[in-house]
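anyone seen this seq b4? input:
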Amino acid sequence: MEYVLDTNTIIHLMRGTPLVRENREKAQSSGARFIIPPLVNYEIRRGLIIKPIPAHEKAYSVICDNCALEDMSFDAWEQAARIYADLYVKRFTVSDADILIAAFCMVNGYTLVTDNKADFGKIDDLEFVNWVEC
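predicted toks r here
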C-alpha cells in the first residue's frame, strides 16, 4: 500500500497525536510506503518558516527521512483540471491545494491519509483514509 500524507496528517505526526502515530506504525509494519507530494512539503515548510518550532522541525525531518518526496507529473496537473471542472459543475468549492493533492494521489494510484473529509469527500474516485478516527 502506498499512502500520501496530507498536511494535516503530518501536523498530527509532528505533534505526536497518539492514534495517528499508531496507525502510521501499523501501516509501516505491514510494508506500506509513504509519499509527500510537493504541495504538502510546501505547506509544511512555509509553516515552519513562519513559526519555527525546533521540535516540529526535527519531527518533520524524521518524517521526511521515512517518506519519498515525489514531483507532480503533467498527467496529475491535467487530472486536477478535470477535478476542478467536475466540482465547478456540481457547485462545490474545494481549494486548489486540495485539488492538486487529490490529483497527485489519483494519477499515481495512492491512498491519501487526511482528516479533511469535508473537502476531499467531494472528489469522486479519490481513495482516502482518516487516521485520526481509525
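The radius of gyration is 15 Å. The chain has seven helices and five strands. kinda curious what u guys think
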